[in-house]
DNA sequence: CTGAAAGCGCTTACAG
DNA sequence: CTGAAAGCGCTTACAG
């Protein structure tokens, strides 16, 4: 009964074993185990007991051969390195993880050809759906509408309206930050927006602008500054800002790295944060926000929840409901000392 | 844009379809496709062509039902948040990814019970092997020897010698750093080791101590300092160090966050880096090392390669070879300006 | 309620 | 070299 003796594989327990022990046919055993109602209760108990004592685990391949679902979804990421993909993956994994669905992980390394291959491989494995996780909020090429399974896009939206995408609400994030600054009495607000090539940067600027107008204010210098997402740029542009607009009383930065740079320069120039100037960033990257002097207020993108939402949507799409479009998900402001501290309660 | 109405494929292409088109039996088709040698070459070509035109993809479940391998491995991580797990996963995914093996991802969130459940679920899915990725180099509980598939541990080693574990060589890392400092003429070296509760911290101290002895030197202050892995601690303990040992000419830090703190305090105290004092860290976390003033020399743990190695080992273990023990993998020093810059060529 | 039988799509001895 | 047949482990009409 054994296989090749090299592997010394113990034959695993099959439904036949369970049926034999319970004294029923495999058909009945199957029904009992799957909760079909055409089984006498006493019989079902007997089968369940038998399965229990034998530690029976149904062979998923045999099951899949008879059922429409494989119980796996593919997660396609373009950059595992990127820190944005991670929390999203956590959320998605979390939403599936505990259930009967498993996540097949693929990293395309930002290479389109590699991505194509991975999609093919995932489909060959008969995944029930695909979740595509990107590293920036700019639209990415759609996988197309001809795939045999539903697809959702997380963080990086598809460029095709027919697809469903989930992205953080960067516009609202910009507005949230401004409202907080204004509520704290700030009137001369500068915006160090980051890299204009990123939709995230532009969206945040849009939200900031809106909220400022609503408050009857204008940006210091008349417009946002754009530059690399780095501490170095944050330091440099903040120095320029202090020269050109020494009266500035708040510096809002496009991400936490820029904000770290701003904090450093302000400190070196003798400006006290938050007494003289308030500073805030975006992304709420803890390693940066909690250790700065002072700790940094930041807009958190709620990425884990975004991943969870995307996964849940995929679930429903698998069950037949589909609709397209980009869904923006709420973000939240995390207030720390750089804008007066948590007791200053915003939002 | 004409719509192709033939795309209504309910039933997917099976081997039977291929066989029919090629005018052979499914048995022959199977052999041809699988490279069995008992097939006439002309026949094989015909089958391959048929498969090609039909875009045939073998059903993996049917295949798995007949073969000893499922073609999937489980990756069990205790914390997707942790930045160490990520590059390791990338490496592992990379080693498998392109091949016929897929990675099933599970995150146990550091919860033992959850981990147990995930292992069970992965085994139920008939994974061919398990790769357990931890977030610190301290030993973790073994999954035990009773699992039906091979297991390898990455970063966090198993506490059971019978298991195979891959960890970065922190001892050698400590030595590497010291050798570099000494080669640069440093004689009064301080060690801000980080959290003594971590094996990584203690191992690095051990390597540092060894290398110092070899050079006939001693640590400034006679011993390493221990504290939290934070910039704040790095700042504080560096201030103390400058008070107690103003002659210090190198500060080696247990990780990059501590090193960032050290750099800041040195700068504020008017010490020039690297002219007066050299500074180096561990982990080579780019967001921290490349944007500091000056950019920070750091020992890189080569985590992606570690993940790749672990995955490859699992491959071989699946093929039957097994042996236990903890394997330490090489790390490397990345020299930046904080120790004189790359041209100062160390290692 | 229960079970014999067909079948999911593929592979592999085993005869031709 | 090729194919008929058995079988992998399970599910589901379909008869009892």
TrEMBL record, chains A, B:
HTH cro/C1-type domain mapped to chain residues: 9-61
Keywords per UniProt: DNA-binding, Transcription, Transcription regulation
Taxonomic superkingdom: Bacteria
SMART domains: HTH_LACI
Alphabetized GO MF terms: DNA-binding transcription factor activity; transcription cis-regulatory region binding
Record-annotated HTH lacI-type domain positions: 13-67
DNA-binding keyword on record: yes
Pfam families in UniProt: LacI, Peripla_BP_3
CDD domains membership: HTH_LacI, PBP1_sucrose_transcription_regulator
Keyword Magnesium assigned: no
The protein's name in its UniProt record: Transcriptional regulator, LacI family
């Amino acid at each position: 009964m054994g296989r090749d003796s090299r592997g010394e594989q113990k034959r695993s327990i099959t439904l036949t074993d369970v049926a034999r022990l319970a004294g029923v046919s495999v058909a009945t055993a199957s029904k009992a185990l799957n909760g079909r109602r055409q089984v006498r209760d006493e019989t079902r108990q007997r089968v369940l007991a038998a399965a229990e004592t034998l530690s029976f685990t149904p062979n998923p391949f045999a099951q899949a051969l008879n059922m429409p679902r494989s119980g796996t979804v593919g997660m396609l990421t373009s950059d595992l390195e990127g820190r944005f993909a991670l929390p999203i993956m956590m959320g998605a994994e979390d939403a599936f993880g505990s259930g009967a669905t498993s996540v097949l992980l693929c990293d395309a390394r930002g290479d389109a050809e590699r991505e194509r291959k991975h999609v093919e491989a995932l489909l060959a494995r008969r995944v029930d759906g695909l979740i595509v996780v990107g590293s920036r909020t700019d639209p990415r090429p759609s996988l197309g509408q001809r795939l045999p399974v539903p697809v959702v896009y997380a963080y990086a939206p598809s460029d095709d309206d027919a697809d469903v995408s989930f992205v953080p609400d960067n516009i609202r994030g910009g507005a949230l930050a401004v409202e907080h600054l204004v509520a704290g009495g700030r009137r001369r607000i500068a915006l160090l927006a980051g890299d204009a090539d990123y939709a995230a940067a532009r969206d945040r600027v849009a939200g900031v602008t809106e909220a400022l107008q609503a408050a009857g204010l204008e940006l210091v210098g008349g417009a946002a500054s754009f530059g690399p997402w780095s501490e170095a740029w944050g330091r440099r542009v903040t120095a320029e800002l202090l020269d050109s607009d020494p009266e500035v009383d708040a510096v809002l930065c496009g991400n936490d790295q820029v904000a770290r740079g701003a904090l450093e320069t302000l400190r070196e120039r003798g400006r006290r944060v938050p007494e003289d100037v308030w500073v805030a960033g975006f992304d709420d990257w803890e390693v940066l926000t909690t250790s700065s002097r002072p700790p940094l207020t930041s807009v958190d993108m709620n990425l884990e929840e975004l991943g969870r939402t995307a996964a849940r949507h995929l679930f429903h799409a698998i069950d037949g409901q589909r609709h397209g479009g980009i869904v923006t998900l709420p973000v939240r402001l995390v207030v720390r000392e750089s804008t007066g501290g948590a007791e200053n309660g915003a939002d």
